[in-house]
Design brief:
This protein is mainly alpha-helical. The protein is built from five helices and four strands; from the N terminus they run H-E-H-H-E-E-E-H-H.
């Protein structure tokens, strides 16, 4: 039941990201159509299906809110652009970002701006969130192992002696 609730929250996060993406595009197309850049990309629907299939497995293995958030953002970002293309519309970019990658064409006098949308930002943002969730999981798992090793050591004969020595010596240091 708890697993299903987390999956539901992950999907809701994805739907919120997708709604934010489509909503901002719809408003900008009405308010300032000249500030948008429509383009026909070819997102791979199989990649989206793969993410949908693997996300519950990852969430089951790494049961954390950060992982749920990261996967929800990833699903919402990929759905935002993919569904736009599936209904026959071009992907609409409208957020200008300085071009972060060194490009030979990006020299003085050239337009060195990367255009993106909310879905793109969500996709890019999900990568560090996923990495952080994996690192957090590894550290948490390693910490659990270290605690078990310490408990075994403390229960051994030498561990009891170490514990008594620390209890006697540590108060001297405040």
């Amino acid at each position: 039941a708890a697993h299903v609730a987390k999956l539901r929250r992950m999907v809701i996060i994805g739907l919120l990201v997708m709604t934010a993406d489509w909503g901002t595009k719809a408003v900008l197309l009405q308010v300032s159509p000249n500030s948008t850049i429509p383009h026909y990309t070819h997102p791979n629907p199989l990649a989206f299906v793969f993410v949908l299939a693997v996300a519950p497995l990852i969430l089951r293995l790494i049961d954390s809110r950060l992982m749920m958030l990261a996967l929800g953002v990833l699903i919402g970002g990929s759905a935002g652009n993919l569904f736009e293309r599936l209904i026959g519309h071009p992907v609409t970019d409208f957020i200008p970002l300085p071009h972060l990658l060194a490009s030979p064409a990006c020299t003085v006098g050239h337009n060195c701006v990367l255009m993106c949308n909310v879905a793109d930002l969500a996709l890019w943002g999900s990568v560090p969130l996923l990495a952080l969730a994996f690192v957090w999981h590894v550290l948490d798992t390693a910490g659990g192992i270290a605690k078990k090793v310490m408990m075994v050591h403390e229960e051994s004969e030498s561990g009891a002696g170490t514990q008594k020595m620390l209890a006697k010596e540590l108060p001297k240091y405040g």
